[in-house]
Amino acid sequence: MEHPKKYLVVIVGPTAIGKTATSITLAKHFHSEIISGDARQFYKEMSIGTAVPSADELTQVPHHFIHHISIDRNYNVGDYEKEAIHLIEEKFKQNNMLFLVGGSGLYIDAVAKGLDDFPEVSPEIREGLQKLFLESGITTLQNKLQQLDPEYFEIVDKSNVHRLIRALEVCIGSGKPYSSFLRNKSKKRNFKVLKIGLTADRNILYERINKRADLMMKDGLLEEVKGLQSKKDLNALQTVGYKELFSFLNEEITLAKAVEEIKKNSRRYAKRQLTWLRKDEAIKWFEFDEDINHIIKYIKLKTS
CB atoms < 10 A from the CB of 102, how many? Predict the structure, then answer.
């Protein structure tokens, strides 16, 4: 007798599109569980600015990889791939379907396809780039990456020094663009992947992003950031919603300007997410306010 196939249903889309609510409804319908693929939601010290599911939402469906590590831990996509695959294999002993949800394209790809094999890079190259950053600032790194790998430059978080240096060290060390190592041959997985994307007209998406930023401020984001000020240089905190408020707390900008920057940088982040996701032809796109029954019907059709 043939074993039933195991399906990992991946829910993707830009920030503020409504992935959490949709995935909870779907997971409840299919009596399943949710694995977070949103790297920002891993850290237990970050809640409001990362839009983690509410306490009520977390009780409706079992969630994994939400608040499971501290910002002090040096945790990367390789660690996540190993832990997530181990958990998925365990969960598939009881379930035939699981949901992987998130906006971090690299982390989603790590689970669905496996990580790409990057070349070994001499530590001297990284040290040289760190020195260049300290002496000449982030713009020099941005310009260098734009020159060496314009394709990756389009989608990278240009304010994340760690990401810029990582891409540049591969470009310099290998003599090839960093993007040429992305999306190489997939690893063999013991499950099938079904990808669903949520989207919206750009004006609607931007309005949702702006509203969410205002709501986060109302919910106490500034207090959350104040509590993390002593750790503001950690890589986990070099992210939208936190770095702008650190600038306010350092008296570099006004609070109104910081909130404006959060909205602007969130819109840019959404644009980068969509640039990454649109390249994946396996994604079936639905409008963010699509009747959930249409998505359920599509999942049943594809997994029966």
Answer: 25
Q: Is 111 helix (H, G, I), strand (E, B) or coil?
A: helix
| Residue 230 CB-density burial (10 A; 0-12 exposed, 13-18 middle, 19+ buried) | exposed
Q: How far apart are CA 59 and CA 37, in angstroms?
A: 19
What residues contact residue 147 under an 8 Å CB cut-off, 6+ apart? Answer: none
CATH number of 123-181: 1.10.20.140
Q: Is the pLDDT of residue 299 over 50?
A: yes
Exposure string over 163-184, b if 16+ CB within 10 A, otherwise e: bbbbbbbbbbbeeebbbebbee
Q: Does domain 7-116+191-303 have CATH number 3.40.50.300?
A: yes
Every domain of the chain with CATH number 3.40.50.300 lies at 7-116+191-303
Q: Which tens digit of pLDDT belongs to each residue from 256-273? A: 999 999 999 999 999 999
Using DSSP, state whether 169 is helix, strand or coil.
Answer: helix
pTM listed for this prediction:
0.85
H or E stretch at 248 = helix 243-249
